[in-house]
Amino acid sequence: MTNPYTAPPAASGPAPKWARKRYVLPALGLALFIGVGIGANGEDTKTDAKTVSAKPRPTVTVTATATVSAEAVADPEPAETVTATETVKVTKTVTAEPAAEEDDSDSGADVYYANCSEARAAGAAPIYRGEPGYASHLDRDNDGVACDS
Known about the structure:
The protein is mainly alpha-helical.
């Protein structure tokens, strides 16, 4: 078999299929590039289509007038009055403060320990919630007992 690209085609009969592809495919590719080039010519497209709304047009105004006779309008009936009553019972509980003991000794109400070492040195550890000297910064695990370990 001979090389189809170097040997000239035979003059007799129709051209082989490969010969037709050799001319048709490049022609289609060239037509594609020419079409893309025409479509992307960079001209301003605003001049192609002019808007119709740019021209002033007459406006149409429609006015409707309705006439209502006095017989057609009935006097509205007053709305029914509803009165809602709610009874509330208020109870006030007053708790009396215990009388302050007048003692010359320190009751410990204003005892403050900066850390647990001070509380242990004063002999107050462990301190339970509600006792004088208890503070949340001394209770690490928030169980109500300060300086417990």
